[in-house]
Amino acid sequence: MRRKRVLPLAALMLCTPALAGTAPAVAAPQTAPTAAPAAAPAGPLRILLTNDDGYNAPGIRKAFERLTAAGHDVTIVAPLTNQSGTGTKMMSAPAISVKHPEPKVWAVDGTPGDSVAFGLAEVFADEAPDLVVSGTNFGPNVAGLATHSGTVGGAVAALESGVPAIALSTGGLSAPDPVTTVNAMGPTLDFAVKLIDRLRVRARSGPLLPKGVGLNVNHPIVGADGKGTAAGVAATFQDPQNFLEPDFTDAGDGTWKVSVKVALKPAAKGGDVEAVAAGRIAVSPMNSDWNTGPADQAVTSALISGLRP
Question: Which CATH number fits domain 9-304: 3.40.1280.10, 3.90.180.10, 3.40.1210.10, 3.50.50.60?
């Protein structure tokens, strides 16, 4: 099951040539939500910063430095350990351990969702943050990867609580190289600052994003050293393919060895895989529920018509 592809006008307006110098690919527009979230301030934002790689990972530390340098009030509330691939999992234990190792940093012994939940309930108990930023993640979160991503899961937890959210990821479609990926986090965060500033300016003291809508941003690795500039920005949707294929081999002792291969299929036109493969930044709107829209509801109604318990 895939998340509903929500792309209201406000999201389409984000990805203009001013952000990266090229015209965006335009996905099919859909009905915008009717309700609006709380107004955003005209000045710098109060940001809850989380991730799934752990509170001390290079991506989140670089994000903290860059967003703080841009004038925003940033607080890290992130997992104590690497929680990659945990998706939207949260609240899996009756108690969690939380550390406060330094000012503006909280480390939660749980998932990204747990971290965001703790941050909203305790760290930002007096007033919700203006924005939750999750990442930047080490490696891409496109296509089926996004569905299982802890980075995206942290953003979804914020959306469920009515807080605007952006998931950030850095990486191409090949196996990530540590040095080039970390280098590419610089351009990723430069773009994130531009994007957040665009949100703030366009909000004009109104909502940063339509209620319940977040953005999944995937920045490619450009250049041999990863420091190159992306070819452009595209408003995309989550490609429906899942290109990771697991294989299980019986070890004969009750256990199975697991290996995973990458089997990329042709990219969907206008999707995030196509954009990243072309060296462009993919910006995909997302929401926090699994509704697929009125067309699929009509199909379901037809399928169950006449059925009785």
Answer: 3.40.1210.10
